[in-house]
Design goal:
There is one protein chain. By secondary structure, this protein is an alpha+beta fold. The chain has 3 domains: about 60 residues; about 110 residues; about 120 residues, Distorted Sandwich (Glucose Permease (Domain IIA)). The strands form 3 sheets. Strands 3, 6, 7, 8, 9, 10, 11, 12, 13 and 14 form a 10-stranded antiparallel sheet that branches. Strand 1 and strand 2 form a beta hairpin. Helix 1 packs parallel to helix 3. The chain is rod-shaped, with a radius of gyration of 46 Å.
């Protein structure tokens, strides 16, 4: 039995012939080794392809997640802007409620039912400020808070609408009272002393201040804050030149430290009519108007009778 295998290679014209002689044992060893090598290379190539494909898929997934996160962040910023607008609406409704209360006070109209206040006015929920909380959780919490605020605004707005309808109906019946109710600022200028207890500018002790002090230049126009009849026009100790107007319905106003008095006793005046000029008469530390509102003879806070 031959232990070798011969292989001949020749050219097309058989002029060149080459012979290769291989041992059978070499072929028996090398062929399985070659097949094993081919199999290993194929396996490694396929494994590399799978790894590369997984890397591509992973990159695409990361890009998708990053895109979704960016989109979610954009949506959250838009929601925060919307939440800020909701906050502004709540504040405006709150101011409308304050204005309604002020008008009711001036017109002496009680409010039926409970107050429709906006409780818990705030910005974004606390969870939205905590960066350790996942973005989707903060996103959902912000949406829930917005729905809550919109529901609250709708409820309060409906209540305010009914309150204003009731107020308008009652105001129609109280036109004369409104015309006679102080509701404007008597003079332009800066309020330098408010209603209530204060440190006396002369003695340094604690005293009750029964009106508002409004400072401006001497000669500034002073107007009546409501329609009424002048019941006093002259001088009073400490107050200098004074005008007192009776508006009826238990309300009166006092204007003190005047330079010029432009009305006389028993004269009828309208709201906004010029009655005097600002001065420095009486006991003062400088030119200003001392303005009082009296309800049934008792000083009341004039600030509550000024509608901005």
């Amino acid at each position: 039995m031959k232990s070798r295998i011969k292989i001949w290679f020749h050219s097309d014209d058989s002029s060149n012939i080459r012979e290769i002689s291989l041992r059978k044992s070499f072929l028996l060893f090398s062929i399985p080794l070659f097949l094993l090598f081919v199999g290993a290379v194929s396996y490694l190539g396929y494994d590399y392809y799978l790894l590369k494909r997984a890397d591509w898929d992973n990159t695409a997934l990361h890009e998708t997640i990053a895109g979704q996160k960016t989109e979610l962040e954009d949506q959250r910023r838009q929601i925060q802007v919307f939440a800020g607008e909701i906050q502004g609406l709540k504040e405006q409704i709150s101011k409308l409620g304050q204005l309604e209360n002020q008008v009711r006070l001036i017109a002496d109209i009680d409010k039926s039912g409970q107050s429709s206040g906006l409780w818990g006015i705030g910005g974004v929920p606390e969870t939205d400020l905590d960066q350790e909380i996942p973005l989707d959780v903060r996103h959902n919490a912000l949406i829930r808070e917005m729905h809550h605020q919109v529901k609250q605004i709708r409820s309060v707005a409906d209540k305010e609408k009914l309150d204003f309808k009731e107020l308008i109906n009652k105001l129609e019946k109280k036109k004369n009272l409104l015309a006679s109710s102080p509701s404007i600022k008597p003079v332009s200028g800066m309020i330098t002393s408010s209603f209530g207890y204060r440190k006396c500018p002369f003695t340094g002790g604690k005293t009750f201040h029964s009106g508002l002090d409004i400072s401006n230049r001497t000669g500034t126009k002073i107007v009546s804050t409501a329609a009424g009849k002048v019941v006093f026009a002259g001088r009073k100790n400490g107050y200098g030149n004074v005008v007192i107007i009776d508006h009826g319905y238990g309300k009166a106003t006092k204007y003190a430290h005047l330079r010029d008095i432009l009305v006389h006793k028993h004269q009828q005046v309208n709201r906004g009519e010029k009655i005097a000029t600002l001065g420095n008469t009486g006991r003062t530390t400088g030119p200003h108007l001392h303005y009082e509102v009296l309800v049934n003879g008792t000083p009341a806070n004039p600030s509550k009778y000024i509608i901005n």
